[in-house]
Amino acid sequence: MAANEPVVDIYLLRHGKTMFNTTNQVQGWSDTPLTAAGVAGAQAAGRGLASIPFIAVHSSDLGRARSTARIVLAQGRQQPLPVQEDERLREWNYGSFEGRPDAEMWTPLFARQGMQFDPQWGNWPEFTSKMSDSAIAQAIHDADPRGWAETYPQITTRLRAAMQDIVDKAMVAGGGNVLVVSHGGAILTILEVLLPGQAKHSDIPNSSITVLRYQHGQYHLLKVGDVSYQRQP
After folding, report:
1. Which residues contact 15 (CB under 8 A, 6 or more apart)?
2. Which end of the chain is more exposed for a tag (fewer CB within 10 A), N or C?
3. What global pTM score does this model have?
């Protein structure tokens, strides 16, 4: 491999907090706007990323991700970049559970593992140590009375393709930093697909930053769910 082969750093940003995040309702392809706290979180992320010279910005086409991308870019000190929207970067599709209380969808899955669902997600790492990403998606799909929820192969196929296109474009451009605004479940699945097992049990809070490096045909995990910039004055 050539020593000067391009390096691509991908900054995966979860959108700011939304109404459904706050009211504990299932939010996948359904969409609600950012709350005041969500806007503030996106602004903090923007300040944390302001010194990063991005060569491209990609976003899920859902409104909460698009809004977050625009807020983040508004905090930067560089030439504004167009937000390239991609429906493949959407959150999981939870089918007919969309908009329903989180507990309605998650309680049976947690109970199957002998656990109690925590609306504040405090025991999520323990839950994911017992149930894999693929098993969770299959259980939700099987439980959806209308059969609309995505299967795991459907989720991984679109996310893998989106990331491949993003990296390919960045490599052609000579490498650099790329901002990708997506969703909590989607980002965890991207990590599991590209770096199996390396981010298991990780938390991806609203407005958090996860960084991947693509070099010599391989991905490296540099940072997961970082919100340290939100504690800065």
Report:
1. 34, 38, 42, 60, 62, 64, 65, 67, 68, 181, 182, 183, 206, 207
2. C
3. 0.95
